[in-house]
Every structure is written in structure tokens, then in C-alpha cells.
Hints:
The structure is a single chain. By secondary structure, the chain is of the alpha/beta class. It has two domains: 9-144, HUPs (Rossmann fold, 3-Layer(aba) Sandwich); 159-314, HUPs (Rossmann fold), CATH 3.40.50.620. The protein has nine helices and twelve strands. The strands form two sheets. It has a ten-stranded mixed sheet with strand order 3-2-1-4-5-12-11-6-7-10, sandwiched between helices. It has a two-stranded antiparallel ribbon with strand order 8-9. β11 (260-264), α8 and β12 (291-294) form a beta-alpha-beta unit. The protein is elongated, with a radius of gyration of 21 Å. The N and C termini lie far apart (43 Å).
Amino acid sequence: MPGASEGTVVAGIDGSGSAGRAAVWAAGEAARRGLTLRLVHVYSVPPVRAPAVLPSAEAIRSGFEERGTDWLAEARDAVARRYPDLAVETAVREGSPVAALIHESRSATMIVLGSRGLGGFTGLMVGSTAVALAQHGHCPIVVARGKKPDDAPPETGPVVVGTDGSAWSDAALACAFDEAASRGTDLIVVRVWNEIVDHGAFRAHPLAVDPAEIETAERKAAEEQLAPWRDRFPALPVETVVVRDRPVRALLGFGARAQLLVVGSRGRGGFEGMVLGSTSQALVAHSECPVMVVRPAEAATGVAEAKATYREEER
């Protein structure tokens, strides 16, 4: 099964308005990076149990393919109205949406999905399909959201990233610095702490801890983790926020004025289970901006080029 060409930004299309808005968001990402946008629709043919009264499987397959082609054309037209010079390719696939998108992710820069859907991509980031894609995909996954279900994703504001010192948050930082640099906007790095939980484990004596000491230690750890990235992106405005809160509430609060929220696929502390648990589902369901989920292996892809490009532009 042919997949995305190297570096392509892929958007999943299912005919919904949410997918159409996600395609336009993905087009902006592709345009900033000088990449091709790839619009993909995946359908599956249900088994024909009463062949005497229903169309043949081939006829059903043809109908699904024709409908998918029409949806892709609509999405392509929406992209062309905003980005008329962008290179766009389309593909209709039969099979499992997860398997198809995992295949696409092998060479894609990112996979972009709408927050709501009508067809094969319905609920893609809130159920078992999301878990499979997040676990086995090979590039960052973005759920393009707006402040309200029918709103376009915001285009202004900072990039916000959640970090807890883990390898997963290092991966998120790599992508977040890259995104903020390519968008020409500020980056806000959020690290959350509280007196009860210490990076995934309950504190032995929560009532005896000194909140001031915890915050000082967390801020020091955050700055140590950020130091290499500040060196690599010296001109990028970066704000570090160490906040006493819960991860979901803190990130949703900062995401309300952001144009992108970036998180690791897992974490060692406050962000543990970011994709597989309730934290991720809350962010994807309630964020007022697009959410990017990143795995550690993905972080190196394209980041070196982004650093070089950013430094060249600053000269």
C-alpha cells in the first residue's frame, strides 16, 4: 500500500466539518515548512449478509470509494481557497483507519485529525483507536480543535508545552521549540507540582513537605531540562511556568490562549498516561486549541533541520 512521501503532512478526512477544518490547519503547517499536504480517506466495506436484497460487495465498495473521493475533493477545495499554491495529494484507502494512518505515519511529518467525525475517524483520539495510533504511530499526532466544536483552530497566541523531566517530555519539548520557531511565536513551558504526588508516586509524608522547597526544586529541574533547548534556539522567547496545580487544569488554562498545546505520549509524573488515560482524554475533549501528542522516537525527526533553518533566519 503506497504511503505518504517523505515529510508529508497527512490529514485524515471523513467528510465532517471538523475534518475539513483540520485539513486547512494541516495545510498551514505544510505551507510553513514547504511540505506537501496529503489528504487521506479510509473506508471499510461491511460484510454483505443478504446478497439477494443488498448491492454486491463490489458495488458497496465502489460507492464508498466514490463518496470518499468527493469528500477529499471538498477538503482540497477548502485548502486551495486558503493556500492556492500548496502542493496537495489525495488518497482513498480501504481497510482499518488505524492501520492506514500508522502506515502513513512511517514517513509523514505529522498526522492531523479533526476533533469530531462522521465516518472512519469518529472518536479517533478518545477510544481504543487513539491508543493504538499513539502507541504504534511513527510521527506526532495532532487533534485540531477550536474554542467551540464548530470553530476553526486559533491562529494566534503562544505554543504551550507540558513537561515533567521525562524522556517523553523531552520529545514534546523538541517539537514545541520547533513549532514555536516555525510559527514565529512565544513558547510557554509548563511544569506542574503538588504536595501529594511526587512524579507518579504518593509522597510518604505529604503533610510534612515544604511547598516552597518543592517549588524551588521543580523550577531548578525545569531550567536544567530547558537549558540545552535554550542554547539551540537562543532567539526564541521562552517563558517557564512552575505551577502548583493539577496537570489537566493547568494545561487547559494555558491552552485557552494558545494556538497549540504539545504533550508527550507518557510521563514520569504529573503527565503520566497522557495519551492512554483520563488526562489525555480530558485535554483532547476540552482543549480550546489543537493538541499535539509526541512520542520520544519522533522528536529527532526534522528537528535538526528546524534548528538550522531557525538559526539561518535569525542571521
